[in-house]
Amino acid sequence: MLVLLAGIFVVHIATVIMLFVSTIANVWVVSDNTKASVGLWKNCTGGNCDGSLFYAHEDALKAVQAFMILSIIFSVISLVVFVFQLFTMEKGNRFFLSGATMLVCWLCIMVGVSIYTHHYASGQKALYTQSHHGYCFILTWICFCFSFIIGILYLVLRKK
Question: What percent of the chain has pLDDT over 70?
Fold first, then answer.
């Protein structure tokens, strides 16, 4: 049981770190032809990330930014609640609050990445004609899977 809790804790910390990286870095869509990438905050060309996004004023992008920040906040809150429950909760109880908070994080990730995928990852508003998804986009979908698994495990596990 201790090994399982330690493993979940490590995966949870990895998820928080990956959420930070994927939200901060500007590599959500990468051009195939030039050395350029686009993130949630800036447009990077030739290693220079001074360019602002031409669709930065759109509500869809602001929603993606907000949901990604909310997912980080809920993931950190869930981690703190888990540690608090680990040391204060009576034996035999489940980690309901940690699990519920992590599932809210999962929902925020799902909404944010789904909006980004629909509006910006491919289609008419794509900045580059030939492009592929960057590592931040992929990291976010990995965090989506991890946060769901962690949330369900928190709901199922009992403190022994």
Answer: 93
pTM: 0.88
State whether residue 56 is helix, strand or coil: coil
Q: In one letter, which amino acid is 131?
A: S
**CB count, 10 Å around CB of 87?**
7
Place of tokens 């508003």: 125
Residue 93 and residue 158 in contact, taking contact as beta carbons nearer than 8 Å: yes
Q: Provide the 3-class DSSP secondary structure of residue 77.
A: helix
**pLDDT > 90? residue 134:** no
Cα–Cα dist 4/111, whole Å: 29
The mean predicted confidence, pLDDT, of the chain is 87
What are the two backbone dihedrals, phi and then psi, of residue 131, each rounded to the nearest 5 degrees? -150, 165
The answer to whether the beta carbons of residues 121 and 29 sit under 8 Å apart is yes
